[in-house]
Every structure is written in C-alpha cells, then in structure tokens.
C-alpha cells in the first residue's frame, strides 16, 4: 500500500474538537466515562468484513491458515450466543491463479470467470472450517440490482433473518460473476455497511491489513493510530490511501465511507487488522473505534440513500428544492422542470436542481412516460384535465430521503481523490 495515492479527507463540516494531533489521539476525546468498545462486547448481532488482502498470500492464492484463524475466532463468538454475519472478499483473488492467470483480471468477463471459480473454493473452505465447530453456513451473493426493487431488498432481509434464527452464519459477497461495472457495489466495505444496516446489526467490524486509522500514512515516521473517532469530522483532514492492495478493490477511503454509512444509522464500527480480531472481541484497545450516532435511520430510508440504484432523475426548480429541503414537502408536478431516464412506478429516482445538485432520493409514483404532460402544472389544473388519479404527489415525502453531504464524499481533482 506504500505506493497508493494519498487522499486528503477535507472537512465538509466544522471540527468538533479542534485539530486532530498525534498528542490528542492517545486518549478518547471527550464525553465517555466508560470504554465505548464495551458496545462490541455486548453486541448481540455483529457483521464482520474481511478483505482480499487479509485472505490471500503474496502469490495471490487463498491463504487458508488465515481464513481458518478467522473462523476459529468467529466460532467462539457465535458460541457466546452472538449472531455473526461474515462479509468476505476473495473470490476473484482465489480464482484467477487456478485459471492460469498471473495477475488479477481487469476486464469484466475474465473477472467474472475468476469469481465463479474462486467463490466455490472460498465457500468450500469456509464450510469445512465452520463445520469443525458444527456451525452451518449459508452463502448469500448480492448484486446492486438486488437493492433496486424494494421487494428484492425485503427478500434479502428475510433470508438473513431466517438463517440467523436457524443458527447459521450467513457468508456474504458481491456476486462478481454476475455484477457489471455499471451496476455494482464496487467494494465489500460499502456492502458490509449496507448489510449491517439491512439486518440492524449492533456493530460492524472491518478487518484489513492495517491496524486502524492513523493520523498520517502508517509508513510515515511518527504516524500514530487514532483509537477513537466520536465524529467523522474529527478526522476530516487525515491523509489516507485511496487504493487497497494488489488483491483488493478498496483502500482506507472506502473503510471511512463504510464507517460513516454505518455510524449515521446508529451502528458503531471497529476498524482493525485481521490478526487482531480475537483481541477486538475481547475488548482490547486495538484498531479505531467509530462511535455511532444516537439515532438509527429507518431501513427504508437507508435503502433509498445508500443502496438503491437510481433509475432516473427529476430536475426541479428552486422553489421545489426549497420546499423539499426546508419543509420536508412532497414533490409535486408543478415544481418539476424535466425528467431524465426510463423508469416505472415504484422505481427509485434522484431529485436534482437545474444546476445538477442532488437533493433527495425517492420512489416515483408514476411511470416516466406519464410525466411529460404533467410537468409544471398545478394540482387544480391536473385535476380538471385528468381527474383525481393525477393529483397525487410525484414523490411522496414518506417515500423520500434527503441526500446528506458527508465528510467522505470523494471527487477527483488533478488525478488525486479528495473529499468535498
């Protein structure tokens, strides 16, 4: 990771505790009279994510001893009465060398082939490892398309719940053999946060090859681990790497994005080295603990904000934008200037201003083909021409979530990733 490009997480919000300095990181910041890591000890339902870099050897093959060590710990955790969901990377990494390839494929078709071969090997190894403890496992492969429709989203919830009720460990991966570059989660860090939200986990543990978040790149002399993050804005100026290892798709920036997604919905996150997973579940001071916000967002709102792939756009005028932001209003036809995309009733759509600024995600109450004749017209006008059937809101406020700016919103400037 030493050659990965640096990423500056520039603060979109004011700092809560002033500048983050090495001297201030040795102790929790403020506001905690107890060890916040006790939340992990007391968690009933935990999602654990392990990355490709922690599961592959230097030559790219699956690191079976490392996988079994992880399972040893998770089996002990499950034996304590906790429900464990494992989000695992490694299918492409486990599959490309058996196919005779000397490096991770970059084209979609070859990556899908490697994933198909590697996923079988990965699950077989997990099945054997958990089987030694008489713990059944269930494979759940997800694509971003599975989160587009609410019905499929709810089916996923039901599958997780039933597996956990039956004492199994769900093992989750993105379905790389079917996913396309146009419609995919992109990395399992984000997928892990979405799974944690979906099943209402009590904690999320992100396992990687670095022991937590540091106040500078870990390879830099004097870099210190940040043990506790109470607010994401507290680490807004920390320099991190934007790319993972040669066998992974993520980097520290995706870990922070995952932590932000989870903590916003009331789920604390521990980021630590895979080798420290046992100590982490013992409550030791390892890695970086991200404190959860006080309130959870509803799963429906979470699905709309983070998981649903937008199928179209509704471009609104300034009056409608203010009504949505300031009053929490529903979106009516009168405020829509134009539509983009082809969608049907029940599809998730993005609501943007004429300047292209994203305002909200919501569920359309109409097909795209029904809307052109309605745009810019008042409810009374629509009632006179079409009757009551066309008076309902285009997107009702109960089916809408405002898009929040976050500390880890990333864009590219001069080839380097930075945050807004």
CATH domain class name of the largest domain: Alpha Beta
| Main sheet: strands, sense, barrel | 8 strands, mixed
The CATH architecture designation of the largest domain is 3-Layer(aba) Sandwich
Helix content: 25-40%
Instruction: Please mark out the parts with pLDDT under 50 across 5 or more consecutive residues, or reply none.
Output: 1-33, 243-250, 410-420
Q: Termini distance? A: 24 Å
Radius of gyration, in Å, reads 23 Å
* Estimated share of beta-strand residues: 15-25%
Number of helices: 12
**CATH superfamily membership of the largest domain:** Acetylglutamate kinase-like
Count of structural domains? 2
Let me know the average pLDDT: 81
Q: Quick recap of the structure?
A:
The chain has 420 residues and is of the alpha/beta class. The protein folds into 2 domains: 6-302, Acetylglutamate kinase-like (Carbamate kinase); 310-402, PUA domain (Archaeosine Trna-guanine Transglycosylase, Chain: A, domain 4), CATH 2.30.130.10. The protein has helices at residues 38-41, 52-55, 64-79, 91-96, 108-131, 150-165, 188-198, 252-264, 277-281, 299-307, 318-327, 379-386; strands at residues 6-8, 45-50, 83-88, 137-142, 169-174, 203-208, 228-229, 239-241, 269-273, 288-290, 312-316, 336-341, 348-353, 358-363, 400-402, 410-413, 416-419.
């Amino acid at each position: 990771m030493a050659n990965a490009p640096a990423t500056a997480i520039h603060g979109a919000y004011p700092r809560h505790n002033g500048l983050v300095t090495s001297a201030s990181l040795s102790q929790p910041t403020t506001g905690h009279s107890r060890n916040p890591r006790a939340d992990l000890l007391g968690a009933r339902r935990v999602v654990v994510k392990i990355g490709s870099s922690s599961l592959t050897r230097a030559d790219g093959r699956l690191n079976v001893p490392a996988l079994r060590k992880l399972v040893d710990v998770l089996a002990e955790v499950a034996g304590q009465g906790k429900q464990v969901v494992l989000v695992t990377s490694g299918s492409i990494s486990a599959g490309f060398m058996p196919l005779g390839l000397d490096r991770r494929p970059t084209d979609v078709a070859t990556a899908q082939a490697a994933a198909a071969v590697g996923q079988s090997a990965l699950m077989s190894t997990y099945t054997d490892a958990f089987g030694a403890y008489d713990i059944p496992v269930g494979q759940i492969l997800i694509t971003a398309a599975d989160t587009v429709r609410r019905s499929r989203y709810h089916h996923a919830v039901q599958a997780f719940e039933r597996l956990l009720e039956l004492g199994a460990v769900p093992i989750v991966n993105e379905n790389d053999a079917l996913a396309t570059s146009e419609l995919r989660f992109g990395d399992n860090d984000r997928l892990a946060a979405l799974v944690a939200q979906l099943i209402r986990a009590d904690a999320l543990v992100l396992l990687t090859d670095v022991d937590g978040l540091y106040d500078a790149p870990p390879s830099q002399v004097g870099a210190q681990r940040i043990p506790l993050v109470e607010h994401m804005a507290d680490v807004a100026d920390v320099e991190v790497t934007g790319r993972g290892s040669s066998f992974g798709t993520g980097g520290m920036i995706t870990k922070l994005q995952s932590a932000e997604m989870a903590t916003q919905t009331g789920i604390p996150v521990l980021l630590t080295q895979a080798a420290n997973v046992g100590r982490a579940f013992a409550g030791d001071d390892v890695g970086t603990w991200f404190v959860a916000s006080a309130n959870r967002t509803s799963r429906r709102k979470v699905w709309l904000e983070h998981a649903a792939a937008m199928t179209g756009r509704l471009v609104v005028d300034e009056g409608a934008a203010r009504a949505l932001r300031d009053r929490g209003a529903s979106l009516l036809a009168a405020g829509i200037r134009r539509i983009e995309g082809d969608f049907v009733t029940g599809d998730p759509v993005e609501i943007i201003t004429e300047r292209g600024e994203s305002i909200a995600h919501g569920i359309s109450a109409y097909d795209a083909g029904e809307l052109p004749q309605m745009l810019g017209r008042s409810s009374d006008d629509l009632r006179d021409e079409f009757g009551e059937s066309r008076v309902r809101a285009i997107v009702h406020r109960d089916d809408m979530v405002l898009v929040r700016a976050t500390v880890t919103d990333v864009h590219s400037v001069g080839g380097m990733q930075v945050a807004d």
